[in-house]
Design brief:
This protein is of the alpha/beta class. It is 37% helix and 19% strand. Helix 7 (130-145) crosses helix 8 (157-169). The structure holds pantoate (PAF).
Length: 284
Amino acid sequence: MLLHRIEEVREKIKQWKKEGLSVGLVPTMGALHAGHLSLIKKAKETCDKVVVSDFVNPIQFGPSEDFDKYPRTLDADVNLCENEGVDIVFAPSANEMYGEGQRLSNDILTYVCPPFFYVNTLCGKSRTGHFDGVCTVVLKLFNIVQPEYAFFGQKDAQQVIIIKKMVKDLNVPIQIIQCPIVREDTGLALSSRNKYLSEDGKKDALVLSKILNNIKSCYKNGITDVDALKETAYNFLTDKHDMEYLEIVDKNTLENKTKADNNSIALIACRVEKVRLIDNIYLE
Ligand code: PAF
């Protein structure tokens, strides 16, 4: 069932809660791919009812980012969701979410602002305000849908860590379930932004997973010095790659490390054909 209005969703949820049914939320920005479907499958296994939100959230995009050209494929998304047995696809307009004609700015609207360290490292360094926008919309979706469980992909590892932090700090009574990265057979992590890449670009993009896999195998072979592990990336990079960051940090707190250990995660952001791609791997 496709719903656009908050009140319609609330009505349905109220009915389910009366019947004692558990609700799972899969927040998405649409352009659904197999990565999203894995979250939906997990939600179906875990909960009686599943809601997928499909909303390209304007407040998590910077002024020079791809909000306008972000792929919007609602009809196809709804078909995929119906095939997976999703109960509600919630696709609100920006007016429905943030108010009619509202200027979307934090001097007018209440935003959720996670701690500085979490939002100003890794992706946050180049995407000022991004995680405030993500947490704000996610908390709004949590309040609208009131799920027992919400499902997020490990591909956006920093996002999941920040959402878990928000849920803990604000006592949000929802269990966050993190699901593994889904990859093409080539190793490329699935992302809605892969649609921007040419066939050659997709080949060049394999460098992200190659660098991460190599770091993991070097770690398994006994190299723990973070600088030495990061250095290995240069064996893979060419002039087709515009690296934004490669870091090895604590998988729960994002704190920097000098020595990698089994709690470490390696994360990379790199532009290929001007498309900003991210990926990560647990070293354990
Ligand atoms: O990961 C995403 O697609 C978005 O950041 C999310 C969580 C749906 C919030 O808009």
